[in-house]
Amino acid sequence: MRTGTVIGLVLAALLVMAALAGGLFVWLRPLTVFEWMERRALRNAGLARLEVDTPAGRQVAFVGGTGPVVVLLHGAGDQAGTWSVVAPRLVSSCSVIAPDLAGHGDSEPQTGPIDVPRILDGAESVIERLAAGRKVTIVGNSLGGWVAMLVAFRHPAWVERVVAVDGGAITGRNESARVVPRTLAEAREAMAQLRDPGSPPVPDFVLRDVVRHAATGSLARFVASTGTMGAWTLDGKLDALRLPVVLIWGASDQVMPLDYARRVLAGLPQGRLITLEKCGHVPQVECPTAFLAALRQALEGVR
After folding, report:
1. b/e sequence 145-182, b meaning 16+ C-beta within 10 Å
2. Residue 184 in contact with residue 208, Cβ under 8 Å?
3. Whose CA is closest to 280, among 166, 168, 169, 178?
4. What is the pLDDT along the chain (303 residues), one digit of tens a residue?
């Protein structure tokens, strides 16, 4: 057998082995692969990965584009890559800042409980440093919506408007929500609460990874601080948010149902609610086209 043929066969075998290993990794750790792809999409859209030293530790943010500043804040247990479909549509007309909140993604701390004050310290420091004195629109999903309202409450001079996506800063809890699933059945129930019934089912190999992440990931670390969260709500104080606040809400969200959104809306001096049919708790991922259309409505008038 010729040497060239042998080398060709070896290379082919190596490629097959690499493909099998890659497929196995996707099967065993699909969430890790998905997050990598999301974050890669942010980089491909021209957003640079920056690091900012803050009182909460080193924070990571993806930054790019020109124009009015739009800050994108993800939810608990998520990371900046959740905006991988949205951010590329904004960079042509906006300066986008998409941080990993403290304790999430690549932002510190990487171990121990994560409480609201630390997350808020990190987010405020990132905005102060990277917005460089320009007013910002803050778009926040779930926990990110809570943080967006707190930043606007504490620093009204910084904020042009808030867009809260299935999230807010008043007390409200769905006792049946499967926040940290421990079994495959609980993970399946959690996904059903987060998503519209008509959305494609989540495969079991992904649900198994959800259970693994739930045990020790950033969501579990955040939930560990539940006892301290009450001091950081805006119950009875929403009327202090004297700026436009747009609520974008998935009608199928069972974790934070529409009734919660209506209670938030009732307390806002300049509030508006946009409902997304057949969409759940994380619309920027589940129904990005409808979400982008609603976001464009919310951003009308931002120059």
Report:
1. bbbbbbbbbeeeebbbbbbbbbbbbbeeeeeebbbbbe
2. yes
3. 166
4. 444 444 444 444 444 444 444 444 354 578 999 999 999 999 999 999 999 999 999 999 999 999 999 999 999 999 999 999 999 999 999 999 999 999 999 999 999 999 999 999 999 999 999 999 999 999 999 999 999 999 999 999 999 999 999 999 999 866 667 778 899 999 999 999 999 999 999 999 999 999 998 888 999 999 989 889 989 999 999 999 999 999 999 999 999 999 999 999 999 999 999 999 999 999 999 999 999 999 999 998 554
